[in-house]
Amino acid sequence: MRKITLSNGKTVEVKCLSCALTSGEVEAEGGVIVESEYFHAHLDVAYPIEGLVILVSKRHIKCELNEPEKVDYINLLSKIRKAQREILGIEHVYYI
Fold it and tell me: DSSP 3-state assignment of 79?
């Protein structure tokens, strides 16, 4: 188990932060930005910064995305990028 301090000062103990977020056990500040069958997007739980989106898989991926996940990932990433540009006016993004 890992102890993680959230942006609101609350400390949670979880085995996997991504699993805790996608299951709803832990809620990121601002809640879920967008969710699909395979992915979940939210702000950073420790340092929520407007426009910084964390896109996580709902399953542990050790090697590669399968074909449906690849399509879903690109579609979801495109939706997020469009919203960043249109709603927040963000011209440039960095994918990490």
Answer: helix
